[in-house]
Task: inverse folding
């Protein structure tokens, strides 16, 4: 067995496609090539657009990008070694060092390759190579190949977006008169709406429509039993004590949201952030997005601004009003959008303090950090084959810049912090409970508190 396979100091091995038949294996064998093929098709379909914009140069760039992507698809499908990046983007060196580190772990006999290396690493690497293929081919370097899908998924969720905006407007219009209990009930609902918004990602569906079609509010009661860990009470009490502390110290409460997908999920996150600010539970919300197109549907700065613009431009009165409110939150600095290259690197978050100390220090300024989605969860717990009853705090392996909470629907076979027997019971009824995105967690950790661990 290689070093990377072994349980070192109680840390279990990384999930990997080398386990034939595992979800990681099926993802690398089937889903990633499907996503790559769609990327190639999208670029090809836009050939005329590139020609119109850039003439012959656009056509050449399209051809060469497709050539690079087809080559990568072949490398993936034939389990070739992972190769260094050749663009000179800011993070390329870091990626190449990461490769060297993994090569050392593998030893001299075997190369780091698509099926033999940690799944988290190769999956992230594929998206970075897509970026490289485009980047190396100006004038289409900045083309977001996932933009069409993200835009479409926003429009396909329109009804649900209107419903949630109307709901928010109703809550906000009476917010001053609400008792603490009523405020908690609204908070709890909107936290769950944001949680279930994470069902709508386009990576698990390999780009197929996965938008929100039903009312996000009406379905909450029936979805409740599917929340396997629900720490919403602790999240609430964290906010309340931050508020009390801020009042006595004359400071502010800051909540950070590490975003996941554009489309309906982003709207649910903005709605939650709006409520946090309108209710006075938070004075500032920092959103963290991706600096390059990522995992098909993840939010970039462009997606973030576009979504707010679209909300403002809606014919639906409530939606438009709320869109304007969001714009003024941004203008007033109550909301801010941030990106950092670390979010689009393959590292487990326990590496953040050493590898991105500026980002770690920044998150330490938050009173609460909400991590949206499956990929963030995988990175929080290192995408390892943990026993399901291991505590969340243990699986975080020292990561804890601030009190944090993962809002995640399960789409990868890693889950910690369950009760003894809970996983076994789920497996006996539904063997794919960890990957079917039917189940979810609201899982909290704080290094300060009396731990649940
Ligand atoms: O596990 C399936 C998967 O597509 C992973 O590739 C990735 O971790 C995840 O789902 C993406 O989901 P999310 O958008 O929730 O991070
Ligand atoms: Mg995503």
Result:
């Amino acid at each position: 067995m290689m070093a990377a396979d072994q349980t070192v100091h109680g840390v279990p091995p990384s999930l990997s496609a080398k386990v034939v038949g595992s979800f990681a294996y099926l993802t690398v064998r089937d889903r990633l090539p499907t996503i790559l093929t769609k990327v190639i098709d999208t670029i090809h379909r836009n050939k005329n657009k590139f020609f119109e914009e850039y003439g012959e140069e656009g056509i050449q760039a399209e051809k060469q990008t497709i050539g690079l992507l087809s080559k990568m698809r072949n490398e993936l499908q034939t389990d070739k070694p992972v190769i260094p990046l050749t663009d000179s983007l800011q993070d390329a060196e870091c990626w190449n060092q990461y490769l060297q580190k993994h090569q050392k772990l593998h030893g001299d006999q075997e190369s780091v390759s698509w099926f033999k290396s940690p799944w988290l690493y190769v999956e992230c690497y594929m998206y970075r190579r897509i970026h490289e293929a485009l980047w190396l081919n100006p004038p289409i370097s900045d083309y977001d190949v996932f933009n069409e899908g993200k835009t479409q998924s926003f429009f396909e969720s329109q009804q649900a977006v209107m419903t949630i905006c109307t709901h928010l407007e109703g809550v906000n219009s009476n917010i001053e008169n609400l008792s603490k209990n009523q405020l908690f009930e609204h908070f709890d609902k909107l936290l769950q709406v944001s949680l279930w918004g994470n069902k709508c990602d386009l990576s698990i569906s390999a780009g197929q429509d996965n938008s929100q079609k039903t009312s996000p509010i009406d379905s909450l009661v029936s979805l409740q039993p599917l929340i396997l860990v629900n720490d919403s009470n602790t999240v609430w009490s964290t906010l309340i004590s931050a508020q009390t502390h801020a009042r006595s110290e004359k400071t502010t409460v800051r909540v950070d949201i590490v975003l996941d997908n554009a489309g309906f999920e982003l709207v649910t996150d903005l709605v939650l952030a709006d409520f946090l600010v309108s209710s006075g539970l938070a004075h500032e919300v920092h959103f963290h997005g991706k600096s390059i197109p990522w995992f098909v549907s993840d939010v970039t700065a462009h997606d973030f601004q576009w979504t707010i613009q679209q909300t403002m431009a809606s014919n639906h009165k409530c939606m438009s009003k709320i869109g304007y409110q969001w714009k003024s939150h941004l203008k007033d600095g109550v909301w801010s959008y941030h990106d950092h290259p670390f979010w689009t690197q393959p590292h487990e978050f326990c590496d953040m303090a050493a590898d991105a100390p500026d980002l770690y220090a920044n998150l330490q300024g938050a009173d609460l950090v909400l991590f949206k989605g499956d990929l963030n969860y995988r990175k929080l717990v290192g995408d390892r084959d943990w026993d399901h009853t291991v505590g969340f705090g243990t699986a975080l392996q020292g990561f804890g810049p601030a009190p944090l909470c993962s809002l995640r629907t399960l789409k990868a076979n890693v889950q910690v912090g369950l009760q003894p027997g809970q996983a076994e019971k789920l497996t006996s009824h539904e063997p794919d409970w960890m990957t079917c995105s039917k189940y979810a967690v609201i899982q909290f950790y704080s290094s300060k508190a009396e731990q649940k661990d």
About this structure: The CA atoms of residues 42 and 148 lie 9 Å apart.
